[in-house]
UniProtKB/TrEMBL annotation, chain A:
The chain crosses the membrane at residues 48-69. It comes from the Bacteria. Keywords: Membrane, Transmembrane, Transmembrane helix. This is Uncharacterized protein. The lineage of its organism: Bacteria, Bacillati, Actinomycetota, Actinomycetes, Streptosporangiales.
UniProtKB/TrEMBL annotation, chain B:
InterPro entries: RNA_pol_sigma-70-like, RNA_pol_sigma-70_dom, RNA_pol_sigma70_r2, RNA_pol_sigma70_r4_t2, RNA_pol_sigma_r2, RNA_pol_sigma_r3/r4-like, WH-like_DNA-bd_sf. Belongs to the sigma-70 factor family. ECF subfamily. GO terms for molecular function: DNA binding; sigma factor activity. One of its GO terms (biological process) is DNA-templated transcription initiation. PANTHER family: ECF RNA POLYMERASE SIGMA FACTOR SIGM (PTHR43133:SF50), RNA POLYMERASE ECF-TYPE SIGMA FACTO (PTHR43133). Pfam families: Sigma70_r2 (PF04542), Sigma70_r4_2 (PF08281). The keyword Repeat does not apply. Residues 13-78 form the RNA polymerase sigma-70 region domain. This is SigE family RNA polymerase sigma factor. It comes from Nonomuraea diastatica. Residues 104-154 form the RNA polymerase sigma factor 70 region 4 type domain. Keywords: DNA-binding, Sigma factor, Transcription, Transcription regulation.
Length: 317, 174
């Protein structure tokens, strides 16, 4: 091995090298027969699932159009019902339904009055590709796209933009898809855009309360950020406060999964905390969540983080 | 799977089991989790055996499968996972400088999972940066930075235990 590549000293190598002759105790609980039986069951289930899906698809294709009770899928929510006073979304409720498409799946949703942002991650765990969908309320897009025309998205006009696509999801209201860390891939961008449907959702359920006195003068709720459930587990929920909806003076507070690597470096109101230049993270002892505050200035972050009361019943702790 | 394919599978897994258990033990905090990880990996291997056999390097393919299974497991179910604490320490390495090895293994187990994977693959499996990057699906630069961070964390953990690197070197250099 090229020793120059190590980024570790001979001493580091010697320390870890100690483990080379470590052997787990003989025997162990690994059972090849059990693996084969479980593997066979898994293969059988897959075959059955594929066969059922194929049969169902065939049956539906043949019979569905003729069934009297067949109804078209619920229509998308009209834009007029998604926006209040003709130009703003509900700040605490998602206004769009986003599916997995183009090799991406939704990772987080940020609500807002004038724009809603959905971050996507690759469906391939080995890939770090990400994409961002930004949906603007009517007339709230920073500028009208002037790229070359693209095929319509859900029958709405669309235009290509650098590394993505913009489309007019409702009259006078535009949305964009931007593929990050990627070369131009118009087909993927178009498929992602097709997966976005205007559909009013329920306001996001927040598993904590914040003492209003800690929010700061002039600030109000400007959005809610929530991660999409991963194996039915939501790993992050937060609220954003600001004086204006699209201004940069926001401050965010919420709960999230603590990273195993996070070590406390301070105490805040008798709670271990990891405080960095950009974030205050409270790590309540024995709890499977961390309370975080980002944005704003340091004192405001500390005040806000300590003003959170987690509703124990709303988390599966 | 055809009987002859099953025979190949059993022969391969039987031969590789010690190496897989060792790699898994480096990655996991205890033997039970290590064995669970190997069990999951060889179950997946059974399901994908035909594809696996066509891999250019079957050993590497299976190691990759095990590492991926480990990393996926780390990402799941944080609200719902129940951790048992205060378990008696396991001493899986009889003979030699047992205490030193246990201390180093304990420290390695506290290094964040992805950094731990990088350290294990580079320093215990002797894989070059490029192969680790390929195996983890990231850039070589990312592997190098994870290595640096992982080593820093490991040194920090060993220092916290008042266990100096020099002592380890004296007692246990091979």
């Amino acid at each position: 091995m090229d020793r120059g590549e190590w980024h570790g000293s001979t001493r580091d190598h010697a320390v870890l090298g100690l483990l080379r002759d470590v052997e787990p105790s003989a025997g162990g609980s690994v059972d090849i027969g059990r693996a084969m039986r479980a593997g066979r069951r898994r293969v059988r289930r897959r075959r059955v699932a594929v066969a059922v899906a194929a049969a169902a698809a065939t049956a539906l294709a043949v019979f569905l159009p003729s069934l009297p009770w067949t109804r078209p899928a619920p229509p998308a929510t009209p834009a007029s019902q998604l926006v209040q006073d003709g130009q703003a979304f509900d700040a605490a409720a998602p206004a769009f339904l986003v599916g997995s498409a183009g090799g991406f799946t939704p990772d987080s949703y940020e609500t807002g009055r004038y724009r809603q942002v959905i971050r996507l991650r690759s469906t391939d765990p080995a890939s770090r590709a990400t994409a961002v969908i930004t949906m603007y309320a009517p007339g709230r897009q920073p500028s009208l796209p002037d790229g070359e025309p693209a095929p319509p998205v859900n029958d709405r006009p669309a235009r290509w933009i650098p590394r993505g696509l913009a489309w007019e999801w409702a009259p006078g209201a535009w949305g964009t898809v931007a593929l990050e860390d990627q070369t131009e891939d118009r087909d993927r961008a178009h498929r992602v855009a097709q997966s976005v449907l205007p559909r009013r959702g329920a306001p996001v359920s927040i598993p904590f309360t914040v003492d209003p006195a800690a929010i700061g003068a002039g600030r109000r709720l400007i959005g809610v950020v929530t991660s999409y459930p991963n194996d039915q587990v939501t790993t992050r929920v937060s609220v954003k406060y600001g004086t204006h909806d699209l201004a940069g003076d926001w401050i965010e507070v919420g709960v999230r999964q603590p990273r195993p690597s996070t070590a406390p470096n301070a105490d805040l109101s008798s709670t271990p905390a990891a405080i960095s230049a950009s974030e205050v993270l409270l790590l309540p002892a024995g709890k499977p969540y961390a309370i975080f505050a980002r944005g704003g200035d340091g004192p405001a972050r500390r005040t806000l983080a300590t003003a959170v009361t987690v509703n124990a019943g709303s988390l599966n702790t | 799977m055809r009987p002859d394919e099953e025979q190949d599978y059993v022969a391969y897994v039987t031969a590789r089991l010690p190496a897989l258990r060792r790699l898994s033990y480096y990655l996991c905090k205890d033997e039970h989790r290590a064995d669970d990880l190997v069990q999951s990996t060889i179950t997946r291997l059974y399901v994908h055996w035909r594809r696996a056999r066509e891999a250019r390097d079957l050993h590497r393919y299976v190691d990759k499968m095990l590492v991926r299974t480990f990393l996926n497991d780390q990402r799941l179910g944080w609200w719902t996972r129940v951790w048992l604490t205060d378990r008696p320490r396991e001493l899986p390495c009889p003979g030699g400088d047992m205490e030193t090895k246990v201390v180093v293994h304990d420290a390695l187990a506290q290094v964040p999972p992805r950094q731990r994977v990088v350290l294990v693959l580079r320093f215990l499996c002797d894989l070059p940066v490029t192969e680790v990057a390929e195996l983890l699906g990231c850039s070589a630069g990312n592997v190098k930075s994870q290595t640096a961070r992982g080593l820093a964390r490991l040194r920090e953990l060993l220092d916290l235990r008042e266990f100096t690197v020099e002592e380890v070197g004296e007692h246990g250099s091979r």
